[in-house]
Prior knowledge:
Oligomer: single chain
Distance between the termini: 5 Å
Bound molecules: 6-O-phosphono-beta-D-glucopyranose, magnesium ion
Strand order of the largest sheet: 3-2-1-4-5-6
Amino acid sequence: MIKAVIFDLDGVLVSTDELHFQAWKTLADELGITTFTREDNLRQRGVSRMASLEVVLEKSGRVYSDEEKLALADKKNTVYVESIARLTPSDVLPGARETLALLRDRGILTAIGSASRNTPLILEAIGIADTFDAIADGRDVTESKPSPAVFLCAARKLGVPPNECAVVEDADAGIEAAVRGGFVPVAVSAARYNPNAKYSAQSLADGALDWDVILG
Ligand code: BG6
Ligand code: MG
């Protein structure tokens, strides 16, 4: 019996993936890396800012010091934060608001479990900051998905054990994190073909996920 649902943020509730890609692309261009692609960007989904930077730097012939890497990650984040400041409630992904309302009506707790340290800025910009019973994000944990740390933190904040929480994810790293943590993994978007997901759908829209079945 599911008592809570933990949502990844980027790519599940809000369409920030393109903004992450554009900000990394800007950095890659500045570094003279011309081979950074959308395919590479898929591997950045769900993982921390520093892990995402490594995906870009794999394409560089140069070795960067830890200090330089921190400066590069900051640079990307400055570009990214400028773009998320332009987010509005219309950037909430289709079906997200309806799903949150449906769960609330059924007395199911909801939380965010996101790698993003920008979670509060994003939730504020899209107008759903007050919707959740708990928020766990990249500021709460040091280990990035596929570690289950951020989901375990969300479950702890909710006071619900992992096996009574579903986790909704769009990234393979996030599905792996959910499995490792003992959560019920629900995949949308790019993760929907992941064989480890218990339930899958293209998105949260149009009743594609049968919450009667998922909640048990
Ligand atoms: C995740 C994104 O939600 O947050 C990743 O899917 C991103 O692509 C990670 O790297 C960290 O985000 P931020 O906002 O802390 O740089
Ligand atoms: Mg995501």
